[in-house]
């Protein structure tokens, strides 16, 4: 009745709207009728889709997921690893479905829900590196109860690159000043015009609010921005980086002294900058994003995925034609 409605002057879209039925279901009915299969209310299985994943690709995804060195990677990181190593070109959702069907989609760590009541401060849109920096200090446990080391970390908010870091027994103004000074030297900030220097975003700790830090940033023409009191979500990028650091499977948990801390964090933060596929910047390593390569890398990945999708469709259509 609906298939023939268009011949009576009523469009298929209008007919489907009146009968509360999906238009694509009617189109499938028409295809089944032409093929002599009747109007059975069935949906084509995965083997009927011309763009379905090839069996070899499914095995490649599973082999990648079962590698011991990738046991802690999310399905998105696994997908990016497949792209970068030119093993398999599938989407995030395809990897998720394959792993879920194989029983490999399990939680790897504990997550805490956001309360939904804190709104971050307004930030202007960033178009490149060294437009906004954020920094903070995090506790590092030691082997003595009540005694801590402190990790000072300075990030570029656009690329998420760790520009400078320090480890100390104390939270001091001097350590904070040297952290910012290390970042400015590493990025040659004083060579930039004053109106192109980054603004600095931080919490309201005593080191951040110290007059020497404020005067230093004023002299360098780098505006200082403060998060709201008791609202760590206002400085989310640095907090997320600390979370990433401490949830890493190889994170030792405790350190004996600053030298022990540097022994771990120097190679770790080098890996973080140069090899870590960061979810916040389209799964590109921060160092590549900082050098302005992110858009090109993402475009190349998308192009390669489209090429593989066309190839997959050709292979599947050829198989369907042979079966018919």
What CATH architecture label of the largest domain applies?
2-Layer Sandwich
Seen as an oligomer or otherwise, the chain set is single chain
CATH topology of the largest domain: Nucleotidyltransferase, domain 5
Helix content: 40-55%
Distance between the termini: 28 Å
**What amount of the residues lies in strands?**
5-15%
Q: Which sheet architecture does the biggest sheet show?
A: 6 strands, mixed
CATH superfamily of the largest domain: Ribonuclease H-like superfamily/Ribonuclease H
The assigned structural class equals alpha/beta
Count of alpha and pi helical runs? 12
Task: Give the ordered list of helices and strands.
Answer: HHHHHEEEHEHHEHEHHH
In the CATH scheme, the class of the largest domain would be: Alpha Beta
Contiguous runs where pLDDT drops below 50 for at least 5 residues:
1-6
Give the overall pLDDT as a whole number. 85
Shape: elongated
Rg estimate, integer Å? 27 Å
SS elements, strand count? 6
Number of domains: 3
